[in-house]
């Protein structure tokens, strides 16, 4: 939320008239309400448990830093453990994942006992000694609820900065938060929401830098370069491979400097952006040194170079396969594809940066041996790009009043996306999809078989999941279905069901109520701004 709040404050400071100041304050308030609404929604849908290996190990790093002031983990380094540690210096055990998520989660871990001890959440430790449920697991997992909410808010600011009306920008951000994979991953403790926030923040910073005030003729403060560079650096600290995503952003920063002051501007922008970016590179290098005695060793070893997949196989699988195709899991991206040409014409610099970053990332991931992201829901490696990919959809939302054809198409596509999100949140994805232990060969053999699609399997349970969820939230049905006590298909896939906790049921109810109120106020403010703008336009004298 720091980027969101700073964006609003800075916009207000740069305003050159009372009308602009009022609009800037309204934008800031809408962004904050939007972030609050989706943070609350994701907090209500959080699973509160760990089901992967990545989340367990990143949590153990957070735990080690807070409790012991070190970065070693407790998970054993043996086969069969989904959270297998890597042996490093002095034969100590470490996580191979980026440090960024573990650092960001520290406040949530630290506050867990004070905030959630009263919930009496039952801890569970698996056969390898890994903590999978409990007070600190639930509290730490809420990190992504806050990060997901902030990502939605920053996406709204991106759309506003690109010149879209407030209602259009709001609709675009709401679709990101409720109709894409971001909703699912914000209920986990994986790194994707943080990566998405960082990439969106890095682009927002450069949009601010590249915008010249039409009245004052002055360029915004270079602090936005610091925001962009810092966000890009945190993205790399989250996952080192993100370096290919942020290189186009650095080039964009350099071009903005060249356009402003030629050679001097090029040097100043590049160095300024790179300084804040390099702060995180130093953190990554130090973390690698502590773990493995080398600034370039990440712990992935030979796995880091396993680019054995034919690029056409990975690329087609990521975009279109029933098992992992992003257009299957996020149909709203069809609207983005429809608006891409108009977006390219109106926002060439931003579009170029998005295309360059997306192309580099797709080329890299499509060659990786686990291009499908392992045992997860949808193409998780593409989640960081979703805030940028959703922006061209604003061009279509802006055409809402052009006829029933446009309106029908938008409603159908957004509706289909909301249903896929319901499948991800209500139906336990680890209970109906492909097994978490699926090998590359096994997965690719099934990736194009429609009947084997985890999404389609889950969609079959959505009607039942909606009915059962409504009954449980209203108190008309017990939290745990005794007839299905041994089944993995307990609806919904929220923390109160996984824990069997009435206290968490009230948590979810309260979170949903807060989300609905905040979102309603945000929509009201956006509508009011649209009406005010129209009245101002009608009352202004002709030029």
Please tell me about this protein's structure.
- The protein has 543 residues and is mainly α.
- The protein folds into 2 domains: 2-46 and 143-422, no CATH class; 54-141, no CATH class.
- It is 64% helix and 2% strand.
- The chain is built from 26 helices and 4 strands.
- It has a two-stranded antiparallel ribbon. Strands 3-4 form a two-stranded antiparallel sheet.
- Helix 5 (106-116) packs across helix 6, helix 10 (192-209) runs antiparallel to helix 11 (223-238) and helix 13 (311-320) packs across helix 17.
Distance between the ends: 41 Å
Tally of distinct domains:
2
In total, how many beta strands?
4
- Which whole number gives the mean pLDDT? 90
Q: Main sheet: which strands, in order across?
A: 1-2
Class from secondary-structure proportions: mainly alpha
Radius of gyration: 23 Å
Low-pLDDT residue intervals, each spanning 5 or more residues: 4-16, 213-218, 532-543
Number of helices: 26
* Percent range of helical residues: 55-70%
> What's the overall geometry?
globular
Q: Strand-and-helix sequence, N→C?
A: HHHEEHHEEHHHHHHHHHHHHHHHHHHHHH
Q: Tell me the fraction of residues in β-strands, as a range.
A: under 5%
Quickly describe the structure.
With about 550 residues, the protein is mainly α. The chain has helices spanning about 1-15, 20-45, 55-70, 100-105, 105-115, 135-140, 145-160, 165-180, 180-185, 190-210, 225-240, 245-290, 310-320, 325-330, 335-340, 340-345, 350-365, 385-390, 395, 405-425, 430, 440-445, 455-460, 460-475, 495-500, 500-540; strands at about 85, 95, 125, 130-135.
């Amino acid at each position: 939320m720091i980027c969101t709040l700073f964006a609003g404050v800075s916009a207000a400071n740069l305003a050159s008239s009372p009308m602009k100041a009022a609009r800037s304050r309204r934008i800031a308030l809408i962004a904050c309400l939007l972030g609050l609404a989706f943070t609350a929604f994701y907090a209500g849908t959080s699973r509160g448990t760990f089901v992967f290996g990545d989340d367990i190990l990143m949590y153990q790093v957070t735990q080690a830093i807070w409790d012991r002031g070190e970065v070693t983990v407790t998970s054993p380094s043996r086969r069969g453990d989904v959270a297998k540690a890597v042996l490093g210096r002095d034969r100590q055990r470490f996580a191979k994942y980026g440090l960024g998520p573990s650092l960001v989660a520290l406040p949530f871990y630290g506050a867990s006992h004070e905030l959630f001890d009263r919930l009496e959440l039952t801890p569970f430790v698996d056969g390898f000694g890994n903590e999978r449920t409990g007070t600190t697991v639930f509290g730490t997992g809420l990190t992504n609820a806050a990060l997901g909410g902030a990502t939605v808010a920053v996406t709204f600011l991106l759309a506003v900065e690109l010149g879209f009306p407030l209602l259009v920008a709001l609709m675009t951000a709401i679709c990101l938060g409720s109709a894409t994979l971001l909703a699912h991953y914000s209920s986990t403790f994986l790194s994707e929401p943080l990566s998405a926030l960082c990439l969106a923040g890095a682009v927002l910073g450069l949009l601010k830098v590249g915008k010249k005030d039409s009245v004052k003729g002055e360029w915004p403060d270079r602090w936005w370069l610091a925001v962009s560079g810092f966000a890009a650096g945190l993205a790399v600290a989250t996952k080192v491979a993100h370096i290919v995503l942020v290189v186009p952003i650095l080039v964009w920063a350099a071009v903005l400097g060249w356009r402003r002051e030629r050679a001097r501007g090029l040097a100043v922008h590049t160095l300024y952006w790179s300084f804040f970016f390099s702060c995180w590179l130093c953190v990554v290098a130090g973390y690698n040194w502590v773990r493995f005695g080398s600034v370039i060793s990440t712990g992935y070893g030979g796995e880091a170079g396993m680019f054995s997949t034919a690029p056409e196989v990975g690329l087609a699988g990521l975009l279109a396969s029933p098992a992992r195709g992003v257009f299957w899991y996020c149909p709203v991206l069809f609207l983005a594809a429809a608006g891409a040409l108009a977006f390219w014409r109106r926002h060439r610099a931003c579009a170029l940066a998005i295309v360059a970053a997306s192309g580099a990332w797709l080329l890299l991931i499509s060659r990786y041996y686990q291009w499908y992201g392992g045992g997860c829901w949808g193409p998780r490696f593409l989640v960081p790009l979703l805030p940028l990919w959703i922006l061209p959809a604003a061009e279509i939302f802006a055409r809402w009043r052009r006829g029933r054809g446009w309106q029908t198409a938008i409603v159908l596509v957004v509706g289909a996306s909301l249903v896929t999100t319901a499948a991800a949140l209500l139906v336990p994805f680890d209970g109906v999809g492909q097994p978490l232990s699926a090998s590359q060969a096994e997965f690719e053999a099934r990736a194009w078989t429609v009947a084997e699609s985890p999404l389609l399997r889950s969609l079959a349970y959505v009607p039942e999941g909606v009915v059962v969820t409504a009954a449980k939230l209203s108190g008309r049905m017990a939290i745990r279905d005794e007839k299905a006590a041994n089944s993995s298909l307990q609806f919904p896939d929220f923390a109160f069901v996984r824990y069997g906790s009435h206290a968490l049921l009230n948590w979810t109810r309260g979170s949903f109520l807060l989300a609905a109120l905040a979102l309603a106020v945000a929509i009201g403010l956006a509508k009011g701004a649209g009406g005010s703008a129209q009245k101002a336009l009608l009352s202004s004298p002709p030029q």
